[in-house]
Amino acid sequence: MNVGVPRPNPWKDTRLTGIDKRPVDGTVMVTAPGAKGTGSVGLAGDRVYDVKHHGGPDQAVYAYAREDLDMWEAELGMALPSGVFGENLTTTGVDVNGALIGERWRVGPTVILEVAGPRIPCSTFQGWLERSGWIKQFTEAVRPGAYLRVIEAGEIHPGVSVEILHRPQHEVTVAHTFRALTREADLLPDLLVAEALPRDVLKTVRKRVEGR
User: Fold this and answer.
1) CA-to-CA distance for 68 and 79, rounded, in angstroms?
2) N or C: fewer beta carbons within 10 Å in the chain?
3) Which residues pair with 185 in a beta bridge?
C-alpha cells in the first residue's frame, strides 16, 4: 500500500509529480475521489499533479503486481521497491493484467474496487526510471497494471486480502485493452462490449472504430 511523495517534475509541463509512491504502515482510508481535474485520487494522503491526464473516479487507485515488478527487476538489473511504478497497491497472487474490465475486487473487509482500465505510460514514468526508450519497452511487455474505481469506501492496511467478487460476461482484459489502445488498433472493436471502461475511452474507441 503506497502513497505519493510530491517531488519536482522536470519531465512534463507540470511543477510537481506524485509518481514517487512510498509504502505506508497503518490504516489508510479509501474513498471515491472528486472529478478529474481536481488532482484527487482514492487513497487518503495521495494526489496527482498532472490533472489533465490523471486522477478522478476512473483512476482512483492504481494496482501493479509484485510478480511483474520482480520480472522487471531481473530484466532491468535494478532494484524496484514496491510503489516505484507509481502504484497504490502492490499485489501478490492477483492476475492484475488478466483482470476483466468491470471486474470487482474486495480489498480488506469493506473496500470494493472495480477494474476500469490499463495504465498508459507517459514521459514522467520514463524520466522517473531514468531509462531512455522505457515507454516502448513497457508497452511491448504488455504488463500495464490496472486503474480501479472505488465502489465502496473503507479502510485498508498492508497485508489485506484481495477477493474477486464479480467477473463480467465478456473477455476483455486489462492487457487486451492495453494492446488495443497502444499498438494493435485492430483490437479496438473488441472493447465496445466492455461497458465499464471510462466514458471518454469508450467514446474515443467508438469514434475510431466507426471512422475506419
Assistant:
1) 13
2) C
3) none
